[in-house]
């Protein structure tokens, strides 16, 4: 599971990395995002109706109606920020988006916490010549429609897909990690068949990653 990540690559560099034409970049001069939490805005690369890549900003976590079990009162919507790789093709919450609305989630690192009171935050990134080489998570997007305390509402949202933790992540989070895609697989993820996409849902090699920051107060990764 992942509840915190960073995306600090400049928007122009993201355009080049993801082969997005300038007119399809909706980010403008977006500021770096050193700490993205559920329900925060984050950047995604998705296909337009014409099949071209666009860069845009959505809210992290598919939203669903959330009712109090005791009173039945409508609460603030739940945000589903992670989707399990073994559920995306069958679960009612994920299936249609997995089939028709896959996206790339630009990132530079992600965080997992270990322990409580206080927790220690571990930030993971890819190895490379840069301090934080940019990469992309496997994601999905949708226009979430739900009941809110003030009535029916909707929000353009995205979620990231998780898979089995690799040997680097497992000591911190024993079961799950986000799916990181290689650049050669971006086209296949965005526009391939559901079967092709399922084949990409696997742990990223541990020997190609490293821990770049850790600490009790390390709740962002600005580097």
UniProtKB/TrEMBL annotation:
GO terms for biological process: protein-DNA covalent cross-linking repair; proteolysis. Keywords: Covalent protein-DNA linkage, DNA damage, DNA-binding, Hydrolase, Lyase, Protease. GO terms for molecular function: lyase activity; peptidase activity; single-stranded DNA binding. It is an enzyme of class 3 (hydrolase). It comes from Pukyongiella litopenaei. This is Abasic site processing protein. Belongs to the SOS response-associated peptidase family. It comes from the Bacteria. Its EC number is 3.4.-.-. PANTHER family: ABASIC SITE PROCESSING PROTEIN HMCES, DC12-RELATED.
């Amino acid at each position: 599971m992942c509840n915190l990540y960073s995306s600090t690559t400049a928007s122009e560099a993201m355009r080049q990395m993801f082969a997005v034409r300038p007119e399809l970049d909706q980010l403008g001069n977006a500021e770096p995002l050193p700490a993205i939490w559920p329900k925060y805005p984050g950047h995604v690369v998705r296909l337009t109706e014409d099949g071209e890549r666009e860069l845009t900003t959505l809210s992290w976590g598919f939203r669903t109606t959330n009712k109090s079990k005791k009173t039945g009162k409508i609460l603030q919507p739940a945000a589903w920020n992670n989707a399990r790789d073994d559920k995306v093709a069958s679960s009612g919450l994920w299936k249609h988006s997995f089939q028709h609305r896959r996206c790339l989630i630009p990132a530079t690192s992600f965080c997992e916490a270990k322990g409580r009171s206080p927790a220690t935050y571990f930030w993971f990134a890819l190895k490379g010549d840069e301090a934080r080489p940019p990469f992309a998570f496997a994601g999905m997007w949708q226009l979430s429609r739900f009941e809110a305390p003030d009535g029916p509402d909707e929000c353009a949202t995205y979620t990231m897909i998780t898979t089995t933790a690799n040997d680097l992540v497992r000591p911190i989070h024993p079961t799950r990690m986000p799916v990181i895609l290689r650049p050669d697989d971006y086209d296949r993820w965005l526009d391939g068949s559901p079967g092709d996409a399922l084949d990409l849902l696997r742990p990223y090699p541990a020997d190609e990653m490293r821990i770049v920051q850790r600490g009790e107060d390390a709740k962002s990764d600005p580097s």
